[in-house]
Amino acid sequence: xxxxxxxxxxxxxxxxxxxxxxxxxxxxxxxxxxxxxxxxxxxxxxxxxxxxxxxxxxxxxxxxxxxxxxxxxxxxxxxxxxxxxxxxxxxxxxxxxxxxxxxxxxxxxxxxxxxxxxxxxxxxxxxxxxxxxxxxxxxxxxxxxxxxxxxxxxxxxxxxxxxxxxxxxxxxxxxxxxxxxxxxxxxxxxxxxxxxxxxxxxxxxxxxxxxxxxxxxxxxxxxxxxxxxxxxxxxxxxxxxxxxxxxxxxxxxxxxxxxxxxxxxxxxxxxxxxxxxxxxxxxxxxxxxxxxxxxxxxxxxxxxxxxxxxxxxxxxxxxxxxxxxxxxxxxxxxxx
Length: 336
Ligand code: HEC
Ligand code: HEC
Ligand code: HEC
Ligand code: HEC
Ligand code: HEC
Ligand code: HEC
Ligand code: HEC
Ligand code: HEC
Ligand code: HEC
What we know:
Blueprint: H1 11-21, H2 36-39, E1 49-50, H3 52-55, E2 63-65, E3 77-79, H4 84-87, E4 99-100, H5 102-105, E5 117-118, H6 129-132, E6 145-146, H7 148-151, E7 163-164, H8 174-178, E8 191-192, H9 194-197, H10 201-204, E9 209-210, E10 225-226, H11 234-237, E11 257-258, E12 261-262, H12 263-268, E13 274-275, E14 285-286, E15 295-297, E16 303-310, E17 314-319, E18 325-328
Antiparallel strand pairs: 1-5, 2-3, 4-7, 6-9, 8-14, 10-13, 11-12, 15-16, 16-17, 17-18
The site of one heme C has 19 residues, from helix 7, helix 8 and helix 10.
């Protein structure tokens, strides 16, 4: 409540001040009894969460008497301020940041809050995502593969309901948003995938849910080995050369080649057990160059260590206890 003139005051002082500013104490306003909420308006304080001034029976903080006999006459009160101005008598501005939620900008505080009371905390008119679904179509948040905070109605895990300096009312920017809940380690290593380093998690993941596993925006296989088809890797080929593993011979498509023999083709493009990219690459970051994982899946739970060294014109892999295997783009190795 920082911006208000009542900053730092306890509720008692606040009420006294408001009463004084109204020119009298509650009991001395002609025709207005004190004890509104105990004598007649019990229904205004019945719910579990009652707004501070209502609980304090300080009805006139918002309902200013304008003369006449209450309850005999009509129109004896008017609100102390219109729309959001009423709330801003005591609360700090909710529409001062770069991005403001339209209902807040329009001063429609009562779209979400009850001015008096509610069965839900913060006098909200509905719980969790139900509040949001009063205006946003819930169908847009139902997917084959849901994201836990969306499915559990925790929209506020990522969005501020009023305002933010980030786009889309987000509570943090880029990867910082995801790292409110996920481990930062995911994006750390000797090689970091460029979109990950740039915090563009949502280029590959749909934050509200997806038709593909792992919230991915496009096709990427779950198994480590599968018959090759280019469309299996649509996610990667959205940014990378679609023909990476298509041609047996190339001197342009990829750096993973021995002379012009395409080693992506050799490992990935097989009609039975072709490798998925993730047998070698981590999609986020890895402790070795070129996103090469430290371990590749073996049989069952057994993981095979892989040691990769890069050279100017090629590289060497030591997989498990096998002999080192090398490739060189300029001076092809025999038996790569
Ligand atoms: C924080 C400001 C605020 C306080 C404090 C407050 N009210 Fe209200 N009240 C409102 C607003 C705003 C409306 C208009 C609601 C609407 O338009 O939906 C309203 C409407 C009403 C109405 C008419 C509509 C209805 O909800 O029944 C009554 C009666 C009423 N208030 C009684 C009270 C009483 C009694 C108290 C004290 C126990 C009180 N109010 C305290 C803001 C307040
Ligand atoms: C007369 C001063 C006053 C006015 C006017 C007022 N409030 Fe409040 N409001 C309070 C006080 C006092 C509290 C209790 C603060 C606390 O418990 O920390 C409160 C608490 C709240 C809370 C809950 C905060 C919490 O942490 O539980 C919400 C939400 C809220 N007010 C919304 C509104 C809205 C919306 C309006 C306008 C319709 C409004 N207030 C108008 C004084 C006011
Ligand atoms: C789209 C729905 C929505 C609208 C519109 C809205 N609020 Fe809120 N408000 C919320 C939600 C949800 C919370 C609870 C936030 C939380 O728990 O982190 C909240 C919390 C609050 C609180 C207590 C915590 C805080 O952030 O200070 C106050 C005070 C408040 N709102 C005032 C207002 C005022 C004043 C307006 C109008 C200018 C308004 N709200 C409009 C949804 C809304
Ligand atoms: C009273 C109606 C209303 C409620 C309730 C409401 N919204 Fe909105 N919201 C809107 C409108 C209108 C827009 C602008 C049009 C649009 O994007 O659909 C909007 C836009 C947004 C945006 C996009 C903002 C931007 O700048 O791109 C987000 C994010 C959002 N709402 C989140 C929420 C969340 C989270 C809740 C629940 C806490 C919620 N809304 C509840 C009316 C509402
Ligand atoms: C895990 C974080 C997260 C959660 C939880 C979340 N959102 Fe979002 N939301 C985002 C991000 C990130 C964007 C920006 C979309 C983008 O960049 O593709 C967004 C965008 C939006 C928009 C703008 C329109 C659009 O779809 O791009 C609305 C409206 C919205 N969210 C509402 C909600 C509602 C309602 C909930 C709860 C049911 C919710 N969000 C839960 C992260 C989240
Ligand atoms: C409010 C907390 C929260 C935020 C913020 C959040 N997540 Fe999540 N996310 C979860 C939870 C909880 C799970 C389910 C448990 C798990 O797998 O760790 C999950 C699971 C996931 C999964 C695995 C889904 C699956 O099907 O296995 C992905 C991918 C994911 N989140 C990506 C993101 C991205 C990208 C962001 C940022 C845009 C993000 N998350 C932000 C809480 C969050
Ligand atoms: C280039 C695309 C891409 C980007 C960018 C990306 N991810 Fe992923 N992410 C994936 C893929 C692919 C998987 C599935 C990996 C698998 O199946 O083993 C995944 C899986 C996940 C998982 C689930 C992990 C698990 O073990 O189930 C989480 C959480 C996650 N990503 C979070 C993030 C976060 C946070 C960011 C941003 C810092 C991010 N991702 C950026 C492609 C991406
Ligand atoms: C959003 C675009 C985007 C997507 C989707 C994407 N990448 Fe990348 N990737 C990049 C960019 C940008 C670079 C850096 C290219 C450069 O430096 O020339 C890169 C580089 C790489 C590198 C080389 C890393 C290094 O350290 O030199 C590998 C390996 C890689 N990506 C694998 C993948 C895999 C596997 C997928 C699918 C899971 C994928 N990428 C999806 C954008 C993407
Ligand atoms: C057998 C392990 C292995 C598999 C499987 C694999 N890669 Fe690679 N990839 C490498 C190695 C090693 C390099 C480094 C080549 C160099 O720079 O010398 C590389 C390099 C890359 C690069 C950097 C640019 C280039 O081509 O040199 C991209 C992008 C890439 N891979 C994407 C993918 C995608 C997408 C898949 C799945 C379709 C995939 N990789 C499957 C080992 C693999």
